[in-house]
Write a structure and sequence with these properties.
Blueprint (H helix, E strand, L loop, with lengths): L4 E2 L6 E3 L2 E5 L5 E6 L6 E7 L6 H20 L5
Antiparallel strand pairs: 1-2, 2-3, 3-4, 4-5
């Protein structure tokens, strides 16, 4: 299983071939697949509340980790 990391410099959440990058808004993250040769923007994750940013960050980490776990199991191929 891929290790989940949060970059201290740019705030990016990474696991496997997935990364959720920080934006200028604390309630948005851009989700990318970074598999070599298949790099692409998947979508933008948007928080439902400005008062629950911590929960949004935790949700983003779970989404990135889950996508990496599915890849590791060969799902979606």
């Amino acid at each position: 299983m891929s290790e989940l990391t949060v970059d201290r410099h740019d705030g990016a959440i990474r696991a496997g071939n997935y990364v959720a990058t920080a934006t200028v808004s604390s309630t948005r993250r851009n989700l990318f697949v970074m598999e070599p040769g298949k790099e692409r923007h998947v979508g933008t994750l948007t928080a439902g509340s400005r008062s629950k940013v911590k929960e949004f960050e935790e949700d983003c980490a779970r989404i990135v980790a889950a996508l990496a776990a599915l890849d590791a199991k060969g799902c979606g191929e």
